[in-house]
Design a protein that fits this description.
This protein is of the alpha+beta class and 370 residues long. 33% of the residues lie in helices and 27% in strands. The chain has eleven helices and 14 strands. Strands 1, 2, 3, 4, 5, 6, 7, 8, 9, 10, 11, 12, 13 and 14 form a 14-stranded mixed sheet that branches.
Length: 370
């Protein structure tokens, strides 16, 4: 059975539990005002959410829920289900922008009572908007206190470098194999540096697409040049490009974002001809020193594909011993509509509802295979 939370709606709140709820569009001043008062990441910025909305043809919104001094803030993408299915009324679902947006909470909000009320209000707001289901990727660093919450499902672990450690301690936490490779890249003449992304977009796109071709990535991972131009324009000083050069040739590059003491590895690529020399190890080694010198607390490298402890996870785990729980929120807001859509999708895929739900893809009606 597909693991998700069955949303229950309750329409009565006692006067002592009155809660405020607002749906914000990109232009609403409360979006940026809220971020100014909460530790956040680039995934919460309206410019980033807008870019993601354009990329997948969705609507960028956020829900702000407050009670006294308590704040619960969720950015998301609203997608029409009617592009997939015919329905008498227009149905929608909600998904996180690419990355780890999750839910922003201030310190006062981390009480079980408020979280229960806030999730209840969030669900009711989605139901009012004819939302059928919601899938949210939580932030492994900012949402650590939510990982055991009933609405949340464990999806795996991610890796980050603790930048509050000394450089010697960071180096000591590096896997010996990685240390040897990093030293070897330096001896071979490789040099890593941060460069203006806008000046290197074409070079980066080539590196990235070579890498996606090599690993057999699905089409959804091919963003295209226009996306990277728009990403640069949207994130401005939050965006950094690290490249590795050898004999004046750029052989590796990675996009890193920076906000509120958190540096995130976003996307990267290596020229196929230099893959065995592992220039990306030098890149990550350089960035963790660079990020630490800028006063950041975390260099978050992420995890494996889909949260799995695969070769990608193993590679990242070689740079640090620090781990975070990665969880998702999976809500069925309207069971009747959800079940109807799942039945239609199962029929289209030539399988049973039970088999489709076993795939653990959420929402199941958007699965493309079993």
């Amino acid at each position: 059975m597909n693991s998700c939370y069955e949303a229950q709606s309750h329409n009565s709140l006692s006067p002592t539990k009155l809660i405020g709820c607002q749906v914000l569009d990109l232009s609403h001043p409360l979006w940026k005002i809220t971020l100014n008062n909460l530790r956040h990441d680039i995934y919460h910025l309206p410019e980033y959410v807008d870019l993601e909305a354009q990329r997948i043809q969705a609507t960028a919104e956020a829900i702000l829920i407050t009670q006294g001094d308590k704040v619960f803030f969720v950015p998301y993408l609203l997608r029409s289900c009617n592009l997939l299915f015919q329905s008498e009324i227009e149905l929608f679902d909600v998904i996180s922008p690419y990355g780890y947006p999750g839910i922003l909470l201030n310190e006062a909000a981390s009480t079980p009572e408020f979280l229960n009320l806030a999730f209840q209000q969030f669900i009711e707001c989605l139901a009012y908007k004819n939302v059928c289901s919601a899938f949210l990727r939580l932030h492994p660093i900012l949402n650590q206190n939510l990982s055991q919450y009933p609405y949340c499902q464990f999806n795996g672990e991610t890796v980050s470098v603790n930048l509050t450690l000394s450089l010697a301690e960071i180096w000591q936490q590096t896997r010996p194999e990685h240390r040897n490779k990093i030293n070897k890249t330096k001896r071979s003449g490789m040099v890593a540096k941060i460069v203006p992304f806008a000046d290197y977009i074409d070079i980066f796109v080539d590196l990235y697409e070579q890498t996606m071709d090599r690993v057999g990535a699905t089409q959804s991972y091919y963003f295209g040049r226009d996306y990277f131009v728009q990403l640069s324009q949207a994130l401005k000083n939050h965006l950094h490009l690290c490249v590795v050069e050898l004999n004046d040739e750029i052989i590796c590059g990675g996009i890193f974002t920076e906000a509120c003491g958190i540096v995130q590895y976003h996307l990267g690529g290596t020229k196929s001809a230099f893959l065995k020399q592992a220039p990306s190890k030098l890149m990550f080694d350089y960035v963790r020193t660079w990020a630490r010198e800028r006063g950041n607390e975390f260099l978050h490298l992420g995890g494996g594909v889909g949260g799995a402890k695969d070769s990608l996870y193993h590679f990242k785990a070689g740079f640090s011993k620090q781990r975070h729980i990665f969880s998702t929120v999976r809500l069925v807001v309207n069971r009747k509509d959800y079940d109807n859509l799942v039945q239609v999708r199962a029929k289209e895929l030539g399988t049973s509802v039970a088999e489709l739900l076993k795939s653990n893809f959420f929402p199941a009606y958007r699965a493309t295979c079993v």
